[in-house]
Amino acid sequence: MGSLTSMRGQNVLIPALIAAVIIGCGGSGGGGAAATGLTSTTATTATTATTATTATTSTTSTTSSTSGGPGVLPKNRIVYAEQQTDGTSQVRHIGPSGETDTLALTLDANTSAYALNPVVSNQVFFAAAASAGGSYKLYRNTTPVIAGATAISPGSYSFIDGVQVSNNGDFLIFSGDIGDGSLRLYYVQLKPTLGTPTLLDMGSFFHIAGTNDKVVYSKPDGGDADIYVKPLPTGTAVKLTEDAAEDVYPQWSKDNSKIIFSSNRGASLLDLYSMNADGTGQTRLTDTADDSEFGGSFNSAIDAFAYGVASNDPANSGLYRITGTTARIQLKATNGILGTYWTSTDGKLNQRFLKPLSPANARLQKLLNPGKKDPPADVKAPADKVIDPKVSDKSGDQ
User: Fold this and answer.
1) For 116-167, how does the pLDDT look when each residue is reduced to its tens digit (9 = 90+)?
2) What is d(CA 283, CA 4) in angstroms, rounded to the nearest whole number?
3) What pTM, to 2 d.p., does this model score?
4) Are 40 and 287 in contact (CB under 8 A)?
5) β-pair partners for 63
6) Residues 88, 130: contact at Cβ < 8 Å?
7) DSSP state of 368
8) How far apart are CA 318 and CA 337, in angstroms?
9) What is the rounded CA–CA span in Å between residue 326 and residue 273?
C-alpha cells in the first residue's frame, strides 16, 4: 500500500475480502495529549489468551430508529457494517455479548460513505455516484439519497472513501481520490456557513477525536504506511508510528487517550495494536497467524474492544470482542464484516465507510485476504494473544 491508492473496485465479499469499512465516532469526553512534540516507540509483546469461544447470538434483525437525539444509537452497542451479496452495505448494531442483532439502515451499492450529524436532527452527509461506474460527489440531505440533496464538494471525485462529522457539528472531514489514484484528506467547515473543501494531507483511514481538535489517519510513507495525527483546522502533522509495515485503521478511544489500529509489523497479515495518544506505549493486542484483524474499537472503559476478522477458515471470519486478557469471543460468524464502532455512554455515532478496494491496491488486498490454506486436522481455531493497558475481566461497558 505504498501509495494508499483509490479503493474503488468490484463488490466482492470477505473472505475474498476486497472490501473494508471503518465506523468512526465523535464520542464524548476530553483529554488526549497535545499534538505538538509527539513521539513514537517500539511496540511491546502481548500475552497469550485461552481458546476462543463463541457467543450466543440473537437473530433479531429489525430496523431501529435513531431516537434520543441527533446522530444517536443505543448506548454500549457494537455498530458494524456488513456488505451484502447484492453490493449494498448494511449498518447494524449488536450487544457486547452478541444479543439483539439489529439493522439500522441499508446503503445502496453506489453510496460509498455516510455520516450522521451529531448535533442536527435528520441531517446526513454521504458520498455517492449517480450510476454505477460514475464519479462521486459529497452530499447533504435528510436521507442518503441524491434526489433533493445539496452538493458539498464543488467538483467530483473518482472515489470518496470516507466522511465523518465532528462531534460538535462544526466541520467534517472526507477522503477522496481526484483521479490520480491517491487518497487525500479534506476539511469542510459547516458552521456558521458552509465552506469549500480544504486539503489537509495525503492519506485515509482517518478518525476525528471527540475533542474536535485533531484527526488521526494513515499516510503513505515510502513503501508502507504510518499513522499520523494533525491538529485541526491547521497545524503540523506528527508521525506516531515508524516501521516498515502497513499501519492502518486508527481509531480514538472514547476519552481520546488511546488509539487502536491494525498493522502487519509482526506478521504477514494484520494484527491489532494500541498506543497512547502521543504515540508511546505501542502494544500488540492480538497475534493470530491465519487471520487479518481490522476495524478495532474500544468500549468506554477501554477494557474491551470489538473488531472484524477475515480468516483462512471461513468459520473464523466475523465480528469479535475481547475483554481484558480473556479469549476472543465471536459475536457473529459472517464473511461480510467491514468494520466496527463501540458506542459510548451517550450512543452518539458518526460513521465513515470504505467501500471495496480496487485491484490496484494489491498490497492491502493481500493483508485483508488471507491465502486459503488447509491446516492439519488436529489444528484448532487460533486463539488471539491479548493484552490491554487497562485489563479487566469484565464483559460490560459504561
Assistant:
1) 888 888 899 999 999 988 999 999 999 999 999 999 988 889 998 889 999 8
2) 24
3) 0.78
4) no
5) 103
6) no
7) H
8) 6
9) 16
